[in-house]
Amino acid sequence: MDESILEASHVEFKYQDGTKAIRDLSLSVKKGGKAAFLGPNGAGKTTLFLHFNGILRPSQGRVRFAGRDVRYDHASLVDLRKNVGIVFQDPDTQLFSASVLQEVSFGPFNMGLPEDQVRQCVDEAMAATEIADLRGRPTHLLSYGQKKRVSIADILAMDPQVIIFDEPTACLDPRLALRVMDLLDRLSRGGKTVILSTHDVDLAYSWADYVFVMKNGEVAGEGLPESIFQNEKILAQADLKKPWLLEVYGELKKKGWLLNGATVPRTKEQLFEHVSENKSFGHARMLKAESRR
Predict the structure, then answer these.
(1) Predicted confidence (pLDDT) at residue 61 exceeds the cutoff of 60
(2) CB distance 231 to 213 below 8 Å
């Protein structure tokens, strides 16, 4: 049985203005997995993330990390936030130090690590996010993409078990978005549990190994990407469209241009391979027919 690292059990949360953001929500995130959360604005994704590292406390229900209920005393929250880090969508809400070096060093220093260990953590985080050349730069003079990478290095420097990314590719150009997603893959291969929220169904379908769809503070559906993204009812409920890979796969299958038993592709490379296999099969069948004449 897969081990859960984060769990929500019958969680409800209401903001001070009376807005009910989370409604009797229960779910678990697998340790070491790549989980994507999708849903319209206001679905409760960010509110849930803020519960995962103790910034928000549920009105009802409970949150668990590594099998233990989250406690809300100062020492327990400090320990939780060492292990569950959040990279916010807008880096300007996260960055506050004068220079990049000070910014990335803040977390490890705040954890009470010795100076030589802080230096090592910072160097590794900067290398992973490719910002070593920015270490002396003032944070307010950075471009949006540079700020995004610094905000990720912020969290990496504390070496958490879980890293949550709220819309990690929002407002990034395609080249930088690919670099960020490559970093998330490397973190996953290194044993981290990586969670993200996104409106990009194509990204979620190809990247995640498990998907949660939220609507009105509830889980509208969860499961493997190839299952969730072929469920028309769930997609309609959350105002999501089908990923282009599944659209193309469905059309090719309908026209008989794929071999029977071709698996549902998760990447464009897998789709191209299916097409190539069918073409090779068709060519071989044609040669065989000609040899019989």
Answers:
(1) yes
(2) no
